[in-house]
Amino acid sequence: MADHLEASVTLPSDPASVCAARAYVAGTLAEWGLPPATETAETVRLIVSELATNAVQHTLGQSPTFTVDLVLVRDERLCIGVTDSHPRFPKRLPAAVQQDNGRGMVIIRWLTAECGGRLTVRPTREGGKTVCIELPWTAPARPVTATGQEA
Length: 151
Prior knowledge:
Elements: E1 4-12, H1 16-31, H2 39-57, E2 65-73, E3 77-84, H3 104-114, E4 118-123, E5 129-136
Antiparallel strand pairs: 1-2, 2-3, 3-5, 4-5
Helix pairs in contact: 1-2, 2-3
């Protein structure tokens, strides 16, 4: 494996792009040696799904596209960045029981922490922001079945 692998895709800020972002990430990680039917791959897809959804829903039409960047460093650390051009940083919102949304960042933070990773948000030079997730890259433990259970 190379010391450093990178992949990037820019998609329109449209709900259909969330699925495209997940598929792109799954395909890239499979190329890098992470089988799609592992718990780690499922977790990364969920994180990307939530980040892409936030980039589409919460930029209020001010970001026509968003970019998903993947970096694998020395087969040890996976960095996922989702960048949009809206200047507002994500906020932790109290999620009411009846509320249909507002839990994305809570889910992302929980999944990231559970995997031993970290979350940061940084401004871009262009005035937007990048939400970065850094996760340890570990060998897949056990495949996950179609029902989401470990095999």
